[in-house]
Amino acid sequence: MLIYTAIALFLLGALAGIVMATQIIAQNRRPNPLLAGIHGVLVASGLVLLIVAIVAGSTTPVVKVGLGFLLVAALFGFYLASLHISGRQHPTAAVVTHAALAVVGVLLLIGSVIIVV
Length: 117
Prior knowledge:
By secondary structure, the chain is an all-alpha fold.
C-alpha cells in the first residue's frame, strides 16, 4: 500500500513539475516559489514512503532501482532549488535531466506494481 501512495505523491508532484518545467523552458522565467515548495514536499513525502516500504521488505528489486533513479533526480532537484533560491536561471539541461530521471524512476515503480499484481 505504501508503494501506491508513493506513486500517487510522485504523480501529483509531477504535475507541479510539468508546470515549472514549462515556465523555465518555454517562458524562460523562474518558477513560482509556492509551486516549487509544493512539488518538493510532495516528492519528498513520496521518497520517504518508498524508503519505508523498502526497509519493511515488501518490495521487489525493481523498486530499489526506481528509488535509485529518484534519489539521483532528487540531487538534481536540490541543485535546481539552490539556483532558485540564489535567483539564477535554471539550465535547461539540468531541468530535462531531473525530469527524465524522475520519469524513469516512477515508471519503474508503476511497472513493478503492474507486474506484481
